[in-house]
C-alpha cells in the first residue's frame, strides 16, 4: 500500500514540527507564541498538544527532520505513548545536523552535509528513535550543488532503503528549486527512479517551483508543500491570512500534502479552515516576486 493510499480519507494538511522541535526558528511571531522559558520539557509538551489536536482533527501526516532539534524524539515518544495509533505516516529528513545546542541565539544553528557518511550516521540516529514507524526519508534542502544529485554511492544507499519499504525523497530550497526537482527526476539506479517524493516551498510569494512540482506529480511522486505561509509572512499579509494561503496551496492539483507549521492550538485550528475554502488564485497572482528576491529576504529572517 502506498503512502497516498494510506492517507486516503485523511486531511491533506500535514503537521510539521520544525518550529516546536527546537528553541529557535525563523517563523515570524514565534517569540510571542511559545513559552518564554523554552525548555525541552515545555516544547515537548507543546509538540504533544499539537500532535494530539492534529490527530483528533484528521491529520495523519507528520513531518520531522534530524536538524529540527528534538522533533524526531518528540514524535517518537508521542507514538510510543499512544500504541493504539497505527494509521499515521511519518516523514523525516537527513542532511543537516543541529548544532545550536538548544540555544535561541547561536552562531550556527545547523550544518549541511549530503555525504554518504552523513546519511549512514543520521539514518542510524533516525531509526534509533522512530524504528519501523519511518515511512518517508528525504535528503534535506537539496540545491543544484548538492552531491545528492550526482553521488552514485549515495544513490545506491537510497535505493537500498527503498527496497526496505521506505519511500525515498528530497526536499528543496533556494531560487533553483525547479532545476533541482527536474534533475532529481532523472536519477536512477538499475533503471528505477531513486526519488519518489519531493518536498518544496510553494506559496503565493514564491510559486516558481509549481511547474516542476506538476512534472514530479505526473511522474508519480508524492508531493509535499512546505512554507505555504512564507514563514509567517502571508499569515499577516493584508487580505490574505493563513487559511487563504494554505487553501491556495491545497488547490494545486499536484499537491499531495500541504504542511502546517502551527505552534499553537489556535493557529492549527485556523490552518485547518483552509480545507473548506475555495480561493481564486488569479486574484493573488500579483503577490509573486522573483525567486531570488524571495530567498534573499528569507535568508535575513531572524531566529527567534
Describe the structure.
This protein has 304 residues and is of the alpha/beta class. It has one domain (3-299): TIM Barrel. It has eleven helices and twelve strands. The protein has helices at residues 3-6, 30-33, 40-56, 71-81, 116-130, 152-163, 177-185, 210-218, 242-250, 265-272, 291-299; strands spanning 13-16, 61-63, 89-94, 96-98, 110-112, 134-142, 167-172, 188-189, 192-193, 197-201, 222-226, 257-260. It has an eight-stranded parallel β-barrel with strand order 1-2-3-6-7-10-11-12, surrounded by seven helices. The protein has a two-stranded antiparallel sheet with strand order 4-5. A two-stranded antiparallel sheet has the order 8-9. The radius of gyration is 18 Å and the shape is globular. The protein starts with a helix and ends in a 5-residue tail after the last helix. InterPro entries: AKR2_Oxidoreductase (IPR053135), NAD(P)_OxRdtase_dom_sf (IPR036812), NADP_OxRdtase_dom (IPR023210). It holds the Pfam family Aldo_ket_red. Residues 45-235 form the NADP-dependent oxidoreductase domain. This is Aldo/keto reductase.
